[in-house]
Amino acid sequence: MPATPVVLSRARAPLAVLRKVAGSTWWRIALFVALAVAAKAIWIWRAGAMVDYRDAQYNSLFEEAARTSLVDYHQLPFWNPYYCGGVYALGTPSARFSSPTMLLSIVFGVLRASPLIAVLACVAGLEGTYRYARSHGAGALGALLAAPLFALCGFFPRSGSFEWINFLGFELLPWAALGLRRAFMGEVRGAVIAGGAVGWMTCFGGTYAAPYTLLVGTWELIEALVSMRREPRALLRGLAMGAIAALIGAAIAAVRLWPIAETLASSPRVLGAIDSNTPLVVAQMLFGSKIPFRGDFLVGALVLPFAVMAALERKSVWLVAQAAFFLWLASGFAAKPSGYAILRTIPPYTMLRSPERFLVPFALVYAVLVARGFGRLEAIVRAKKWPWAIASAAALFAIVDDGVLVDNDWGWQRGRTLMEAPVSANRDKNDFANARGDRWLAAYYPSLGRGTLSCFDDYQVPQSPELRGDLPHEEYLADQTAGTVTRTSWSPNAIALHVDVKEDARVIVNQNWHPGWHASIGEVVSDKGRLAVNLPPGANDVVLRFMPRSGIGGTVTSLLAIAACIGLWRARKAKVGAQLAIAIVPFIGVASAFAFVHEPPRPPMALVLPDGESIVAETPPPGAQKLGVKLEEGIQLEAARSLIRATPDGPVLDFELDWRLDRPAAPGLGIFVHFEPDKGDTVNVDHVALATVAPFEAFPTNKTLRDVLPDIAVESGKTYRIYVGVWRARRGGERLKVTDKGNGTIDEDRVLVATVRAP
Amino acid sequence: MRRDLVPKIAIAVIASLVMLRAATARPPDAHKKPIDDKIAREAYREVTSKERTARREAAVKFPGDPWSQDDDFHERESEAVRAFAGSKELRLGDVVRAVDDGMRERWPSPITPNPKVPPCRPRLSY
Lengths: 759, 126
Prior knowledge:
The complex is a heterodimer of chains A (759) and B (126). With 759 residues, chain A is α+β, with helices and mostly antiparallel strands. Chain A has 21 helices and 25 strands. Chain B has a domain at 30-105. Chain B is 63% helix and 0% strand. Chain B has five helices and no strands. The radius of gyration of chain B is 23 Å and the shape is elongated. The interface between A and B is large, with 94 and 60 residues.
């Protein structure tokens, strides 16, 4: 046989094997499982260790608290008493426990389950990307080789290394996109897949994954609208299936979506970072800058030519547009105009940060383009009868690129600093108390039967400042002389007390109040944010139970939604009206909760200073220096007051700014305060919430608004010039212009409000 | 069906091995000493004695931001807890517990620690 055909046949053989593997579902999944395990090997090998990173502390705590509720107390994890003095567990945006992966945490323990979840998520991402690429017309081999570009993209190992396990929910993105694509083509099963994926990622703490999926879904919708514009019946059916996907997704996610919406409505997430990523930074994140290739969102550059080949095809116009769209968003405020800035004005995107995370959906589109590009190369080789060695070499490039991604994964895993895991001690289940705690060691508290008051989350946690970490008893009478209180049993969602009082009395529980708490006797009230119950005189056994309407209604809705998914899957040939009806049925859970679960309304936010005085006043306080400086948006800095005083720990400044709004405040504003010392660096006292309570938009117009900032530590011997202004802190970062300087001294749209010398 | 048997078995074997390793891997520092009452009191005294200085430094670092000041203090406190646990080869959880027990039972210390924390009000950006 001549030499060339031998080379050709040998070059073709590996491709044929790979193509066969790609075409067989189980062989393909076996390959994906092996690849995922290889990629997470170091993590698996060191399973059970705690990552020494602050976010790992609370992410592990959320999961452990839920596990404890289920395993030790046989209760649904509605209330998490171990964090911040008690928080609504279902309303905690980034908690992941309401997902099927909770079973792994129960069986293996939270930390040992993490790498298993990572493997499962990775396999889901690989298979999902493969199928999504195929739905875009990619060949089996191209889709197989390109699937790791998304599922092993640098974002996932990076998230894993910080124990941001909830971000692994992004691996369901291709399933959601695939489902929507099929739904818009009229398949009800596509709607079920999309709804299921979105519901799952939301229940998995998908604070970013779910809103991002909405954007990917919007692209699928636009593509469907354009491609089916001349087929109105098909289009209508597609839209109906899209509606079913949305209904099913919302219904499955109801157990989390409703409580989270409630939580964030009353305790908003205020973010102000003006994130920018230049094209070079984006390129480095995607492709790395040196060997070994490392990148926060590494997808690899070796396969870039395939993506370019696909992009040159006319039928790739939608994918190219999508890729450009997500790159535009990922550049944040660096792009002019900034799509990210526009998006940040639309809920829920107002509460998201780190625009580079839009590189995750980009990675999916990139994978599809690469898959299609490889298919195009194969077609050219076949049509022009070029040597198959070219296609084999191309496949080798793709495999090397996949290897680069695995190596990047290992790099992130090796880079983790590990520490000892919390050890569960044998303890009395009724022994629970809130410690002052330490959020930097938060994960260690549940195993001790303690909650940590010191905490962090990305939103303004409804937390009472009156909680204490040194109480001999966690439940006590407001009037200690009124009688006695004895705890008879304790669990996360139920506290039983024996109370013996001579007259009407208030029992205070050293946990946060929430309207979902109910009492068997008496009336539950908020006592300065603490959980409390007013009781009649006599000896009473009272049980406090946490039964939040949104938690109960959401749980029922989600369970019904799972049943509806099964129904829809089987009823794929039913009429559209019947299918829509099935998708709506789960919302009976929401309606029933409103009908049968009573919950008092949340009291309006108390706009008061720490000393109880109102922030809203008729005039500035006596002694304040009148300024009368007017700024854009109808904001006036009426007056300011600053008073230096000495304390044993050093000098402090009591500082007050008095604002007035001529009209309702625009959203997204913040106050900047620059302390410029005569020597040393400027100290910023920037803030959004007046007196650390609420932003401008929460306050009425034509009143004095007292922005009191007491006890500002200053350094002895320094003289400070204090400049103040207003900026669009949660938008583009621009300062509001001064329109009338009044009695103030103005410098670059800042008002010089005081010059003080620290003794 | 028979054609799929091999990959299914491969998946089952790989999954079993992975779960076995995840269930049995030994985490770092699994064999540290348990704490006794005397060392626990020493831990409490050592950790809380730095509170005043740490709070002042935090106040200078984050003026006008009570939550950030408290959070910065707790970061310093966590370093003190780790340092003590490391120096005595103790389990971290035991030292965490000692600090809590000391506060609750008013163990002697040069400083009376502040038992309250300001509500969580995260900064605009990190």
